[in-house]
Amino acid sequence: MVNSNWEIIHIPGKPSYPPTQQPTVSVFASVIDPKLANTLVRKLNNIAPLENLRHVKRVRKSCVDGKTQLSVILCLTDENGTDLDSMAIDLLELTTCYQLSPFVTQVCKYAAITKEEWEEQGKLWPTSFHPPTYNIDGITGFSEEDSKVVFDYMNFVLKLAKSAGCQLVNAAVIVDPSVNQIITSACDEISSWNVNLDDNEVRSLGTNEASISHSVANGSSSSMFNLDGSPDDPQASCSRISCLNPWQLPPPSSSTSCFWHPLRHAAMVAIEYSASRDRRLYPSMGETDERSIQLDSNGTSTVGFPAKRQKTNLPNVNNTDDPPADRVLSKSERPYLCTGYDIYLAWEPCAMCAMALVHQRVRRIFYAFPNPNAGALGSVYRLQGEKSLNHHYAVFQVKLHDEESMAVTNDGIVK
Amino acid sequence: MGSIESEDSCSTSAFMELAIQEAKNALERLEVPVGCVIVENKKVIASGSNRTNETRNATRHAEMEAIDSLLQQWQQDGLSQSDLAKRFSKCVLYVTCEPCIMCAAALSYVGIKEVYYGCANDKFGGCGSILSLHNTSSEYSNLVEGKGYKCTGGILASEAVSLFQTFYERGNPKAPKPHRTVVQS
Ligand SMILES: [Zn+2]
Ligand SMILES: [Zn+2]
Q1: What single DSSP character describes residue A381?
Q2: Strand spans (E) along A328-377
Q3: Which residues pair with B164 in a beta bridge?
Q4: Please, which residues have CB within 8 angstroms of residue B106's CB and are 6 or more apart in sequence?
Q5: Which of A105, A159, A298, B179 is deepest in the core (most CB within 10 A)?
Q6: Each residue of A322-338: pLDDT tens digit?
Q7: B57 to chain A: which residues are within 8 Å by CB?
Q8: Does B137 touch chain A (CB under 8 A)?
Q9: Cβ proximity of A144 and A71 under 8 Å
Q10: Is B126 on the interface with A (CB under 8 A)?
Q11: Is pLDDT at A173 greater than 60 in this prediction?
Q12: pLDDT band at B74 (very low <50, low <70, confident <90, very high)
């Protein structure tokens, strides 16, 4: 099988370490009189909340010489040393007032994801364990059939990434996995942004890209790239891949009809296409209008297809949009933003794109190559692990294990 | 010297007032009320407000709207790429809410000079609250070679917050029924 060398790897919300080697941070702690525990904890939570260590318990109960002993965390030590003077004034006052004798100890930096990790953490200092609530189906393994679908879409997106000729670009494909259908696809438009495009033109642009690539969508695309995402073809250049070099000015373009738009990264463009498709498919969505919507003869729809569409139709955006003529859509069938959709990207997205995908409520992200310069899903930042965000997607790297590529130099992506 | 400082802070809040006016426009259109203006040489050259509901594109934040309108304006004027970059490096953004991670990154990519914001964005903020994308000397500086910009918060923050309160009391009409969306800026 063509894709037998590929592997789908879950990229979790925090770096993964063996349970016994979890990263730790230093804190000041002190043994306290159990009678003072409530008072002290209340005061400490007030003046020195453990903002980034919410999984760490403030108080540790231990047994020393048959007697119960309580210790409490005062605060993090400062970066450079464990000098008591580095504590905040009000903490120092509290220490003096209650005659505490601070000592330095270690606590685990990240919340435990597994029970095994949690048990190891407790050996240092007790933590609480809340298995992640934002787990999404599919994290724990892909069936052979599911994997095949993932590889096919990834193949498709890698072809798009190469479709601009010798300049590699980032590419994105948004998919509705429930009906196995491409919602839209896009490439970087940093140097080809056309200010005069209206919705329809934008649409046909997206469609054309998809159709062009359709003709080559049946082979493996992995041979075009080395293991690290550098192109096989030494003539091909990575310098214009949006998310890899977001601060770099592209070389001036020769054509006057070309515009520079530093923010038109593939994922941003794909989100825009999918939003404009949504407006086109569901034109009137008044707040109080609960009627179902009758599509006109040109109307298009994503719903109501037989659940298993064959992969050969996959990139043909023109056809997949055509619903049965008498199809009636109810408002409830319209997805909210990209809820439930997956996106495939050639390269790990930058912070802008990764956050845009949070905003647009994408369900899963698959990328082929990491982005060591500016990647926000594991390489530099790790947005999928930022608990404060209101939406969490699952992130996967679809890794190429091409034996021929193993010999390739490992000097980074940008050449 | 004192008089120069007070003149500066006076113009800072004057520009923020304009951003708040933009946010009010958004509120009237049933959008999350965030607005901004971009200022070059003490003149407002672009403005924007949230259009996420109207476009069904949750990335159409005020900052993105303003940046897009500037790019469009400048390119129609025939400015070259390097001219554009030069112009952005003279621009100051006034926005009613701390830019989110997406916008904070975008502002660094276009190379903006400076940002003033109203209230902090505890859930999504990219200028100090969650990440510090404006700050090239952050803990990631050895990895990220990006352009930093100066960023100051707390300008007319209470006015920005009260707009959000008005909005959430009404409820976000486009959000899925069971839960409301939180601040999207
Ligand atoms: Zn990007
Ligand atoms: Zn934003």
Answers
A1: -
A2: 328-329, 342-347, 364-369
A3: none
A4: A263, A352, B63, B64, B67
A5: A159
A6: 343 334 444 556 778 99
A7: 271-272, 275-276, 360
A8: no
A9: no
A10: yes
A11: yes
A12: very high
Whose CA is closest to A362, among A384, A332, A329, A330?
A384
How far apart, in whole angstroms, are the C-alpha atoms of residue A361 and residue A136? 13
**Nearest-neighbour CA in chain B from A353: distance (Å):** 7
As a whole number, mean pLDDT of residues B127-156 equals 80
Please report where in the chains the tokens 């990647």 appear, as a residue. Answer: A375
Report the alpha-carbon distance of residue B138 to residue B155 in Å, rounded: 23
Neighbours of ion ligand 1 (CB under 5 A): A 243, 265, 349-350, 353
**Mean pLDDT confidence for A262-279:** 95
Question: Rounded to an integer, what distance in angstroms lies between the CA atom of residue A177 and that of residue B119?
Answer: 39
For residue B135, the distance in angstroms to the closest alpha carbon of chain A comes to 14
Cα–Cα distance between A274 and A340 in angstroms, integer? 13
Classify residue A167 by its DSSP letter: B
Question: Do the beta carbons of residue A227 and residue A408 sit within 8 Å?
Answer: yes
Q: Would you say A43 and A56 are in contact if contact means Cβ atoms under 8 Å apart?
A: no
Query: Which tokens sit at A244?
Result: 């890899």
Which of A104, A123, A217 lies closest to A171 in space, CA to CA? A217
Contact by Cβ (8 Å): A177, A183: no
Q: What is the pLDDT of residue A121?
A: 92
Q: How far apart are CA A21 and CA A108, in angstroms?
A: 10
Contact A207, A273 (CB under 8 A): no
Q: How distant is the alpha carbon of residue A400 from its chain centre?
A: 19
Q: Residue A244 class from Cβ within 10 Å (0-12 exposed, 13-18 middle, 19+ buried)?
A: buried
pTM (2 d.p.) = 0.73
| Residue B111, CA distances (Å) to A250, B72, B87, B130, B147 in order | 14, 17, 9, 21, 6
| pLDDT for res A304 | 30
Sheet hosting strand B35-40, strand order edge to edge: B43-49, B35-40, B91-97, B114-119, B150-152
ipTM: 0.90
Phi, psi torsion values for B169, nearest 5 degrees: -65, -35
pLDDT tens per residue across span B75-123 = 889 888 888 989 999 999 999 999 999 999 999 999 999 999 999 999 9
Phi-psi region for residue A155, left (φ > 0), alpha (ψ -120 to 50) or beta? alpha
- CA A42 to mean position of chain CA atoms: 37
